[in-house]
Amino acid sequence: MFQPTRDRSTDRRTALDLIDYIDASPSPWHAVATTAARLAAQGFVRLEETARWQLTPGGRYTVTRGGGSIIAFVLGSAPLVESGLRIIGAHTDSPGLRLKPRPASASDGLARLAVEVYGGPILATFTDRDLSLAGRVVVRTATGTETRLLRFEQPLVRLPNLAIHMNRDVNEQGLKLNKQTELPLILGNLADGEDADVHLRTLLATQAAVAAADLLSWELAVVDTQPGSLWGADEAFIADSQLDNLASCHAALSALLATQSPAATCVVGLFDHEEVGSESATGAGGSFLADVLARIGQQAGLDGEDTRRSMARSFFISADMAHAYQPNFPSAYEPGHKVRVNGGPVIKRNANQRYTTDAETAARFMRLCEQAGVACQQYAHRSDLGCGSTIGPMVAASLGIASVDVGSPLWAMHSVRESAGVQDHADMIAALTVAFHS
Question: Could you count the other beta carbons within 10 Å of the beta carbon of residue 355?
């Protein structure tokens, strides 16, 4: 039985590494690039979906799709048909604001940028913050087109709040923003006769190191420029953007990098588009994971019968953040399921299968936590509130394997700045590492 060695003195260092990972990854495409770089530094070989694969026993590989999704795997020493697969899934995207294809407009001497709401962010948290833009652009080159990552480090845009003198009920009624008319971001001043579209394209083209005429298209997210930090009297908490769900991505990645010579083949899948339903070529609802697993099985020489035997011995962990109890709002929580920050990984349950956990898979994850030497918590949503979901149910349904939904406790989920626990993150990595050796 694999028994990890725990050193609590490293928890802070692990949390700071998480902050570095998130701050280097302001968009799903940056998150994949950051992940791929860490994998490559540890000897993982990049595969292309368009090439024929030649996998070697014990090999460590990565493959990306669409720029925003990545799968990494380590081939185990035991035959697939005997050991099955150990799979951890998470998502690279976070809710927020995205620029429209033609966003720039001029209004009262100001250049403004129109945005779409991506997923379900807490819109009010985007006001009065130092925001910028990050994502990817496609540019014309001498040989065709090229996709480049783009990021403005400095505060570039802003969504100023309306003064309380014009919104007297804001503290009683809450800040409500019309998604069409009240979310355009201020980019800057315009000189008399200056075109707002030209102003924006010039900024983007300069950042991408191309001529403005060669800037073809973009996918750009509105991002917070404030770095992540540790906070609290004893620095027990983490604050950053995109903890949901880059903290789970980092935990899965860290567990895989710590896994050496496993018996079972270990897989990490990090997918784009979870916050908008996952139904895309790169989302967990698409074929990416199934395609990669099929190619692994084919390389192992499995026929249809043995493939199904292998899947029956497999286990999938859907890792997404969990709602931590916030004592200022006790009525928002199920009384018997008050998840505590720094209380350990959380098993998420829902009778209507918004989470994929059942009694057997919950018990299995509890045993993994016991083996890792960490506490374990359980979460259920209030019955009179709609429950969110994860990639868990769709992956479990498509693959037909035993699955569990878990996550680290999180305050202010879907805020532009969320908070989690230092100890929880280290504990999640420990539990996932044990899972790869189970």
Answer: 29
